[in-house]
Amino acid sequence: MSKSAEKKKKQTTWALSDDVKAIVAELIQKLPEFKFIDPNDIACMFKDSSNSTWRAQVSKVRPSDYLLLSGTWLLKIAAWKDWWDGASKAHKYLAMFHELKHIKKAPDKSTDKYALRKHDIEDWHQILVNAGIDWENADWVFKYMDRPPEQEVSK
Ligand SMILES: [Zn+2]
Fold it and tell me: How many domains does the chain contain in total?
């Protein structure tokens, strides 16, 4: 048997994930900056594949997301299952925090509820300054989530 045949590639599959949803919902519930987001608008999913160019990704639900068309989701947050299964709790929370930071309110004249933005330098700054680059062990996100309301950063 050839090497390539032994290393059988698994077919890419997508499925709704309660694990992803739990973390996304908790972040939205605890952090005022995400108050405008309705967790029910987000389809939380696993991408199960041999390889992935990303670990987590947020996107708008499009007609090509046939699996989601029966629902009322507007956005999709997907995590690559192989990464997720080996990641620490802190890393998962930080990754979902980061993905949620991509979501903003759509402009008033838009018919959409949400818009997506590219990486915001201030968001990266907030995460990098506080959590560093080693997300595996960065428990900053838990302190940030659970801080008392009076320590809110003013806008
Ligand atoms: Zn990003």
Answer: 1
